[in-house]
From TrEMBL:
CDD domains: ALDH_SNDH. It comes from the Bacteria. The active site is at E261. Pfam families: Aldedh. Its EC number is 1.2.1.8. It is an enzyme of class 1 (oxidoreductase). SUPFAM superfamilies: ALDH-like. GO terms for molecular function: betaine-aldehyde dehydrogenase (NAD+) activity; metal ion binding. This is NAD-dependent aldehyde dehydrogenase. Residues 27-484 form the Aldehyde dehydrogenase domain. Keywords: Metal-binding, NADP, Oxidation, Oxidoreductase, Potassium.
Length: 499
């Protein structure tokens, strides 16, 4: 393993933008160097795109969409191309997983699983390209019929975050392409590698030039130019609520459609009648997967008062077995935090929580941890108005509150501005169903955590965002409806009387 790392450090991977069908460096030759958060060495070098690069990408997308070659192409042909890319992702799973683990520090096995799931999203979108269709009405009277055409929305900008680089992009890009859109993608400055590899695959698979453009660079100017451009018809943004608000402001220019997946503060609601072992495991998984850097992280535990002490103790005991360390060590479940800023944010939230009166059940203490490694942390005695109960920490920190009955559990679950996900642990199915109807969240898991399927939609309520990705609803987001009214035979009535 050390050998492999030394080789990569001596010769970091270099990536190119994919613009107008060509693999290119930034026009001015600038680059971004990405260090592995776990190893502190440069592992990837991306183009640092400038305004002229992003303008070229947007123009290429606009021209390709207006030319209509992809938008009007038979869905079966679009499907074949998307399936080819799915296959390429599978064939390159080792390389892609290596890139993601080096850039994000998620354990290698986790990266491989995510890459394979990403491939299945491309497969699903391929199927959707064939089956996407409009509607018709023949109940409008003897001489009227109507067709509802489902058309691609146009040029789509996709701005992606660093936490699940290929996976989050694959929840969006193949769906936009399946619908017939042209696309400009800006991955995160921290994790652009696998997104830029997709450019190579799309080119090799024969996508017409300009239909998909992928370029690395900073949020400002590259992401901001996509938000501001009148040539872009829709933006799919995933990331912080702050930049989501910028997207909303910028969309006023040309009344862009927006699909936003923003922050979360999702509850794990644990009732006393749950299967304790399964719930403990599920709560820890929901809180700590991807180092807690996960928009649907179950970062708030709401546990029924009668079992709270025993449950917290079990959580703390199980955490002792969770290995924090080198993501290439097969035993590691938790790697390093993505960057220094995120690490400092997590550390300061723990301090804020203790200052607000929370008590530390475990973790929090950085003694024995080097660099950007942060131990899973549990804070109990949390009250709903505390900042650590309201704000997204985006790290391996679980806040614990208790409830006396179901009404209180639901009230607490709904007591934040967010509404992305919820996890319910109970053996009473009626209780679980009642909670899933009353908790405000885009996704609810009952007695499980984080399972995902390309068939199912995802997205948020309240300030967690707008729109849905994946599944049938996901592809429909990238379309417009056009109603065609058709009159049969001669019109019998005139608006202006015949002479
Ligand atoms: P950001 O919202 O800044 O980043 C998400 C994407 O937006 C990145 O590609 C980023 O570019 C881009 N971006 C940044 N500024 C602009 C802009 N002005 N116009 C257009 N695009 C822009 O998130 P951070 O990385 O700063 O993380 C901060 C917090 O956001 C986290 O602590 C977490 O709370 C939340 N977050 C939520 C995610 C989710 O899945 N919902 C994912 C990531 C973060 P670049 O990074 O390349 O500069």
């Amino acid at each position: 393993m050390l050998d492999m790392l030394n080789k990569i450090v001596a010769n970091p991977k270099r990536f190119k933008n994919y613009i107008a069908g060509e693999l290119r460096d930034a026009q001015d030759g600038s680059v971004i160097e990405r260090e592995s958060p776990a190893h502190g060495a440069v592992v990837s070098i991306y183009p640092q795109s400038s305004t002229s690069d992003v303008e070229a990408a947007i123009e290429a997308a606009r021209q390709s969409f207006d030319a209509g070659e992809w938008a009007f192409r038979y869905g079966g042909e679009r499907a074949t191309l998307l399936s080819t890319v799915a296959q390429m992702i599978r064939e390159n799973v080792e390389e892609l997983a290596l890139i993601e683990t080096l850039e994000t520090s998620k354990p290698l096995t986790v990266s491989s699983g995510e890459i394979l799931f990403a491939a299945s999203l491309w497969d699903y979108a391929a199927g959707a390209a064939r089956t996407l269709h409009g509607d018709s009405h023949n109940n409008l009277g003897p001489q009227m019929m109507a067709m509802i055409l489902r058309e691609p929305i146009g040029v789509v900008g996709i701005i992606a975050p660093w936490n699940f680089p290929l996976l989050i992009l694959s929840e969006r890009l193949p769906f936009a392409l399946a619908a017939g859109c042209s696309v400009v993608v800006k991955p995160s400055e921290f994790t652009s590698g696998t997104s830029l590899k997709l450019g190579e695959y799309l080119k090799a698979a024969g996508l017409p030039a300009g239909v998909c453009n992928i370029l690395a660079g900073y949020g400002d100017p590259v992401g901001q130019a996509i938000l501001d451009s009148d040539k872009v018809d829709m933006v799919a943004f995933t990331g912080s609520t702050g930049v989501g608000r910028r997207a909303i402001a910028a969309s006023a220019g040309n009344i862009k459609k927006l699909s936003l997946e923003l922050g979360g503060k999702s509850p794990s609601v644990v009732f006393a009648d749950c299967d304790m072992n399964a719930a403990v495991d599920g709560v820890l998984k929901a809180a700590n997967v991807n180092m807690g850097e996960c928009c649907i992280a179950g970062s708030r535990l709401l546990v029924e008062e009668s079992i709270a002490d025993a449950f917290n103790q079990r959580l703390a005991e199980r955490l002792k077995d969770l290995k924090v360390g080198d993501p290439f060590d097969p035993a590691s479940r938790i790697g390093a935090i993505i960057n220094q800023r995120q690490f400092d944010q997590i550390k300061s939230y723990v301090a804020v929580g203790i200052h607000e009166g929370a008590s530390l059940v475990c973790g929090g203490d950085l003694t024995g941890y080097e660099g950007l490694f942060f131990p899973p942390t549990i804070l109990a005695d949390v009250r709903p108005e505390m900042r650590i109960a309201q704000e997204e920490i985006f790290g391996p920190v679980l806040t614990v509150m208790t409830f006396k009955d179901r009404d209180e559990a639901i009230k607490l679950a709904n007591s934040t501005d967010y509404g992305l996900a919820a996890y319910i642990w109970t053996n009473d199915i009626s209780n679980a169903l009642f909670c899933s109807r009353h908790i405000q969240a885009g996704r609810v898991w009952i007695n499980s955590a984080l399972d995902g399927f390309p068939e199912l939609p995802l997205g948020g309520f309240k300030r967690s965002g707008n729109g849905r990705e994946t599944g049938r609803y996901g592809i429909e987001e990238y379309t417009e409806l056009k109603t065609v009214h058709m009159h049969m035979g001669l019109q019998s009535e005139r608006w202006v009387t015949d002479v």
